[in-house]
Amino acid sequence: MKITLKVWRQKSRTAKGEFKTYQADHVSSDMSFLEMLDVLNTSLIKKGEEPIHFDHDCREGICGMCSLYINGHPHGPLQTTTCQLHMRSFHDGQTITVEPWRAKAFPIIKDLVVDRSAFDRIQQAGGYVSVSTGGVPDANEIAIPKKIADEAFDSAACIGCGACVAACKNASAMLFVSAKVSQLALLPQGHAERKERVEKMVAQMDAEDFGACTNTRACEAECPKAISVTNIARMNREYFSAVFSSYEVTVGGGD
Amino acid sequence: MFGNSLTSIFGSLPNNFSMKWLIDLFTSSLGRKLLMALTGLFLISFLVIHCTINAMIFLNDGGEAFSKWGHFMGTNPIIRTLEIGLVAGFLIHIVQGLALWRANHAARPVKYSVSKAPANGTWYSRSMGILGTLLLLFLIMHTSHFWIPNRTNQFTQGEELPLYKMMFEVFSNPWVVFFYVIGCVSLFWHLLHGFASAFQSLGLNHLKYNGIISFVGTAFSIVVPLIFALMPIAVYFRWIN
After folding, report:
1. Rounded-to-5 percentages of helix, strand, coil across chain B
2. Residues A150 and A193 in one domain
3. Domain-embedded: residue A252
4. What is the overall mean pLDDT for chain B?
5. Which is it for strands A113-114 and A108-110: parallel, antiparallel or unpaired?
6. CB–CB contact A214 B128 (8 Å)
7. Chain A contact set for B111 (CB, 8 A)
């Protein structure tokens, strides 16, 4: 396969970026998209040029590290992660435009690499549970209905890649935050911090300058883990009931 | 003396009296959407009344029923009090909508060079700001045709204007009819997304009720704008007298 690539190149966070065109003439249809970029980078290095920087890690579709906005879709034309996208999804002679995630909350570090630490800060704000010390509890000691366990598991499938933010016309992080809130709110283990969690995570999400939700459902369609917008409705419920009934959250605790 | 009574009122409040949480709620992204949903559903309830009374012109009784109920809505003290809430509802929905549009726009300062819509989304769900702006323009035109002159006359002269007669004058201009129909089409698309979307924003998403919400929302979005659009058309073509 012969592929023409239009790739966003940007030296640093503050530098002005631009598209550069590259020709990849020996692309196998069995290569993953990242392998295709690896081969291109090797040729760039051989020519003494700066290779294209992009995020990747497990290359098994489970770590959430890869990104890339490919031909107008986060993670490309299929509902999967970029590392699980293969060149057979494209045709010979096609021009592919590769851009980084675009969001104020995800500033570009270099080329296609964006800073997604906003997600880490949201998670740190409330995405945890208290665990008692002491003896090991019996397995399955707490009864959880199968349907609830499945629902929590579906929410927990979120790998935090940020495709929802990239897909949303408002660069909103609602799908990510709602999946993290849901996962813990559904289970009894998450009930100790239930109200405090959703209030803190939403406050952090707003502080990171993500947009609001317009219920266009673009996030759900592009999410490689098929996280449903039902989670967003659940987060809304959790948040409103927490706001009207919780103690005020004071930063830093105190008496 | 007045100062003293104020002090005694506030003195009796507990020390930890704070409305900060409520302010935080309505300035948060979720709270702002809550306001959009609540005012949106409130405006939908207004449309039910407005549309029902308007539909009375199709009784073809020379505007008798229409004028009777129009007079009731324009003079009943309870309705007039609720009207203040209606104006507030409109203002909150419009101002908050525009503010959200601006904030959402700012969340992506650099746009994509190639961006394609996902298969499951609808163009109108992504265009609520534009549809809302069209509706705002329509609202300005519509209120300056009927509501503003009527209320102004009530305040200054103490009597209502003959709305039924005015309707025939206003809708004799084909351009006005055209813009009213455009307004109704915008309302159709705005409601088609807005009705069901309000429930999602309120967190009312449940497999048992999603079907009925979607059905009622679609039916409402078709029926109400259709009745509204038929009014100027029927008057222009003299289907009613």
Report:
1. 75, 0, 25
2. yes
3. no
4. 91
5. antiparallel
6. yes
7. 102
